[in-house]
């Protein structure tokens, strides 16, 4: 037996994926008489639907709208109440669905559906920090408190020797995974089976049971392969409700695949954020006060609030602190999770402000961060299970060549570009949820381990096999991993960087139980539930940390920013599989690059929705944008985590990377852009058509 954890073994399903044998939600073999559905989006920004009619010569099996759709049960998420009301809350909202023999027929018929609207009005969809609908929600995402105040931050800010007081904003961002949201649905003898592209098979099972008044055991959700999600598939989405509704109405299997444009409207997105950050420090750069007030938007039909200020509560020591969250209810679709929700935009704001404080005090940005390192968690007062910020900063600085950075902005010119370096810290909570798992010994001696997890491309199948193999003390080849099916032992969804820890704990426990039986006789089996284990953890602050470094080149004539290289150094506990870990961290850093320089959902203030709702106009990083990205991690042993000792890696790579790029742009040019993305017009506007004098002084060709 060889140790599996820590080995860079290849993905279990890699051959199946590259040869096309891996099936996704929309790729199930066609059932006899299978039909296809296509949705009809609202074309008005707000109002009501009076009538839905189809051209007489269009041949379809059904046109469902609120007047003839079946009534659903009371699912908590109002975005799932599709076709239940005549109210149009935002442009792009689903107002009808057409079912036909072929995909082409369904799409063509949907284009010939006529919707008569009433009470149409202009959209109220502009987020401002003084919007009349602003309110404080009871709590924010993941159950964190809305507001927290410690000490007297206003008095401390008023008396501070150094004061930073600025606004930072981030644009709407769209997950838009490679595989769009898709569902194949069928009913048989009162049992609903769906093949769904989801991060949470057990969660979708529960919502479908409620919506269609079924016992959970009469609902089966299969998500064998999922082509990315990034949070957009973390909860039940309207496509699975519509597909099930259409299948019941027609009595046939129905396939529904949302087009790319729909992914910008009805499945969620990262809310735009406005952040006022104030830092008060003494002459040594030691923080005396920090406040972070965040503003974001939600829909008029369902509340969602990112924990944008939450990370500010944990990252730096200060005796006086205030963090708040406010929501504006607008005529927009409901925002949702997007990779590192809250932490990604929140730490852009704070880490940019810290860089500004470093500039104001003349202290190196790394040294300033180290001076404000807390001994315990500032939010709870609890000790950290482990904290590696300083080590990540030191090791990153050495590896990246931070000593070559010129501290005065605009001093380093190479040909027609200005070059600069930036740094930012990163943090993300360790989230672990209870899970169940089972294991059984097969007749051929292999051991099947089952858990209703979802592999969204992260390599969960592979890592859970490695975890099981070590717990059983067998080779990984002796383990067969079953996941992606709600019929398997119930498990939390893939999200919050919690999957491996949550599922892996249950897998470890069930494998230890099987091993304790003394032999692996065919037919032996075991079950496990980690609810008591998770709830019995010590009161500690458990977080992953990192340091992000970026070097950029800014074209003097155009203002175009190019990221030359990035380095992320992370403290993420034990790494289960280095190959998969690096892939996840590099992916997160690429997310941050897109957030920093190009991703920008443009709100249409006249017609509602987003003006750029496809990947032709919503720009994401291409291979040419991602040149030299490197992710490494420190050796970190943390015994206060799940038994495997990992901290989760799916999102920490995205945190801090956009701030590091923005700080590098400032170091290169002297231009501070506080509104993401950093586009060339924002750079040139601050230059006012002039290259910084320092760059001209060092020029030989201009």
Largest sheet: 7 strands, mixed
Assign an overall shape: globular
- Number of helical regions: 16
Radius of gyration: 26 Å
Which range does the strand content fall in? Answer: 15-25%
Helical residue percent band: 10-25%
**First and last CA, distance:** 67 Å
Give a brief outline of the structure:
With 702 residues, the protein is an alpha+beta fold. The chain is built from 16 helices and 26 strands. The longest helix has 20 residues.
What does this structure look like?
The chain has 702 residues and is of the alpha+beta class. Helix content is 24%, strand content 24%. It has a seven-stranded mixed sheet with strand order 3-5-1-14-11-12-13, sandwiched between helices. A five-stranded mixed sheet has the order 9-17-16-15-10. The protein has a five-stranded mixed sheet with strand order 18-19-24-25-26, with helices on both faces. Helix 7 runs parallel beside helix 14 and helix 13 (578-597) crosses helix 14 (657-669). The termini are far apart. Residues 698-702 have low confidence and may be disordered.
Quick tags:
702 residues, alpha+beta, seven-stranded mixed beta sheet, five-stranded mixed beta sheet, 16 helices, 24% strand, globular, disordered C terminus
Topology diagram in text:
Blueprint: H1 14-18, E1 35-41, E2 47-54, E3 62-64, E4 87-88, E5 94-100, H2 103-111, E6 113-118, E7 139-140, E8 144-145, E9 148-150, H3 153-158, E10 162-170, E11 182-188, E12 191-196, H4 201-211, E13 219-222, H5 238-250, E14 254-257, E15 273-281, E16 287-299, H6 312-315, E17 320-330, H7 343-361, H8 365-371, H9 389-400, E18 413-414, E19 417-429, E20 436-441, E21 447-450, H10 460-472, E22 479-482, H11 499-515, E23 525-529, H12 531-535, E24 543-555, E25 561-571, H13 578-597, E26 628-633, H14 657-669, H15 680-687, H16 693-697
Parallel strand pairs: 1-14, 12-13, 16-17, 21-22, 25-26
Antiparallel strand pairs: 1-5, 2-4, 2-6, 3-5, 7-8, 9-17, 10-15, 11-12, 11-14, 15-16, 18-19, 19-24, 20-21, 20-23, 24-25
């Amino acid at each position: 037996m060889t140790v599996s954890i820590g080995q860079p073994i290849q993905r279990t399903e890699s051959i199946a994926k590259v040869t096309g044998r891996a099936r996704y939600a929309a790729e199930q073999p066609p059932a006899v008489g299978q039909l296809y559905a296509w949705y009809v989006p609202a074309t008005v920004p707000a109002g009501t639907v009076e009538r839905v009619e189809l051209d007489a010569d269009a041949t379809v099996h059904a046109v469902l709208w609120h007047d003839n759709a079946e009534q659903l049960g009371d699912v908590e998420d109002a975005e799932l109440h599709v076709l239940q009301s005549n109210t149009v809350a935002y442009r792009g909202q689903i107002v009808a669905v057409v079912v036909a023999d072929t995909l082409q027929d369904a799409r063509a018929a949907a284009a010939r559906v006529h919707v008569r609207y009433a009470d149409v009005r202009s959209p109220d969809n502009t987020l401002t920090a003084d919007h009349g609908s602003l309110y404080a929600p009871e709590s924010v995402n993941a159950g964190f408190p809305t507001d927290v105040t410690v000490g007297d931050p206003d008095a401390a800010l008023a008396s501070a020797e150094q004061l930073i007081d600025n606004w930072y904003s981030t644009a709407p961002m769209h997950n838009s995974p490679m595989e769009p949201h898709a569902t194949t649905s069928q009913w048989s003898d009162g049992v609903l089976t769906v093949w769904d592209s989801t991060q949470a098979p057990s969660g979708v099972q529960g919502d479908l049971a409620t919506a269609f008044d079924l016992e959970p055991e009469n609902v089966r959700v299969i998500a064998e392969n999922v082509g990315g999600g990034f949070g957009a598939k973390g909860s039940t989405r309207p496509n699975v409700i519509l597909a099930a509704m259409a299948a019941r109405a027609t009595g046939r299997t129905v396939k529904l695949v949302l087009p790319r444009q729909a992914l910008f409207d009805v499945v969620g997105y990262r809310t735009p954020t406005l952040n006022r950050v104030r830092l008060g420090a003494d002459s040594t750069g030691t923080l005396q006060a920090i406040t972070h007030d965040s503003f974001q938007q939600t829909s008029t039909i369902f509340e969602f609030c990112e924990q944008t200020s939450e990370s500010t509560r944990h990252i730096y020591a200060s005796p006086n602190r205030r963090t708040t969250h406010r929501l504006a209810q607008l005529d927009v679709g409901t925002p949702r999770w997007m990779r590192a929700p809250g932490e990604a935009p929140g730490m852009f704001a704070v880490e940019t402000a810290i860089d500004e404080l470093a500039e104001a005090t003349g202290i190196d940005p790394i040294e300033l961060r180290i001076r404000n390192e807390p001994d315990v968690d500032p939010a709870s007062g609890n000790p950290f299970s482990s904290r590696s910020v300083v080590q990540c900063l030191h090791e990153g600085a050495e590896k990246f060549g931070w000593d070559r950075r010129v501290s005065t902005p605009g001093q380093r010119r190479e040909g027609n570009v200005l070059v600069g370096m930036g740094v930012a810290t990163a943090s993300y909570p360790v989230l672990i949820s209870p899970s169940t798992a089972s294991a059984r010994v097969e007749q051929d001696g292999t051991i099947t381990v089952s858990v209703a997890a979802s592999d969204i491309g992260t390599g969960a199948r592979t890592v859970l096999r490695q975890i099981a193999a070590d717990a059983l003390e067998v080779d990984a080849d002796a383990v067969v991993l079953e996941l992606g099916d709600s019929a398997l032992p119930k498990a939390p969804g893939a999200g919050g960087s919690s999957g491996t820890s949550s599922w892996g704990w249950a897998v470890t426990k069930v494998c230890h139980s099987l091993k304790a039986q003394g032999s692996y006789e065919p037919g032996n089996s075991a079950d496990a539930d980690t609810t008591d284990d998770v709830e019995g953890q010590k009161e500690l602050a458990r977080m992953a940390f990192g340091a992000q470094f970026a070097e950029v080149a800014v074209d003097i004539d155009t203002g175009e920013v190019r990221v030359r290289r990035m380095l992320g150094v992370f403290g993420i506990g034990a790494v289960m599989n280095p190959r998969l870990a690096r892939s996840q961290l590099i992916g997160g850093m690429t997310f941050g690059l897109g957030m920093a320089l190009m991703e920008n959902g443009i709100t249409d203030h006249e017609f509602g929705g987003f003006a750029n709702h496809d990947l032709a106009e919503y720009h994401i990083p291409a291979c040419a944008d991602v040149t030299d990205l490197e992710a490494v991690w420190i050796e970190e042993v943390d015994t206060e985590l799940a038994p495997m000792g990992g901290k989760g890696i799916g999102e920490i790579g995205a945190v801090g990377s956009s701030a590091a790029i923005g700080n590098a742009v400032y170091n290169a040019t002297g231009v501070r852009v506080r509104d993401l993305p950093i586009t060339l017009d924002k750079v040139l506007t601050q230059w006012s058509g002039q290259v910084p004098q320092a760059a001209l002084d060092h020029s030989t060709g201009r």
